[in-house]
Amino acid sequence: MGKQSLEKEPDIAMKADSTALVTCEGLTKIYRTGIVALNDLTLAIEPGMSFGLMGENGAGKSTLVRLLMGFIFPTRGSSLCWSRLT
């Protein structure tokens, strides 16, 4: 599956004039096996913020990083890193 655009007006974090370095809006990844790795993740990481990515095994940490790096594509939602769509 390829990238999909948001059908609704993006949240404030996803707007072009946002200062956020990383934003995710409704980010979901469901693998072909049916495993839901991320479900409707929305976040914004602003400059100067401290951010930690923690969770149990299988919580979706590696999937989120792979989505942000562009190695895999979301099932739904979108993300921006440094104002670039990933």
Structure description:
This protein is mainly beta and 86 residues long. It has one domain (12-49, 56-80): P-loop containing nucleotide triphosphate hydrolases (Rossmann fold). Helix content is 10%, strand content 31%. It contains 1 helix and 4 strands, in the order ββαββ. The chain has one helix at 61-69; strands spanning 22-30, 36-45, 76-81, 84-85. The protein has a 4-stranded antiparallel β-sheet, with helices on one face.
Task: Based on the model shown, name its key terms.
86 residues, mainly beta, Rossmann fold, 4 strands, 10% helix
Please report the number of helical segments.
1
Structural class: mainly beta
CATH class: Alpha Beta
CATH fold assignment: Rossmann fold
Q: Strand content of the residues, in percent?
A: 25-35%
CATH H-level superfamily title:
P-loop containing nucleotide triphosphate hydrolases
Mean pLDDT: 83
Please tell me how large the radius of gyration is.
Answer: 13 Å
The sequence of SSEs as H and E is EEHEE
Helix fraction, binned, reads 10-25%
CATH architecture: 3-Layer(aba) Sandwich
Uncertain residue ranges: 1-10
- Tell me the strand order in the biggest sheet: 2-1-3-4
Largest sheet: 4 strands, antiparallel
Q: What's the β-strand tally?
A: 4
SSE blueprint and pairings:
Layout (H helix, E strand, L loop, with lengths): L21 E9 L5 E10 L15 H9 L6 E6 L2 E2 L1
Antiparallel strand pairs: 1-2, 1-3, 3-4
Short description:
The chain is mostly beta strands and 86 residues long. The chain is 10% helix and 31% strand. It starts with 21 loop residues before the first strand and ends with a strand.
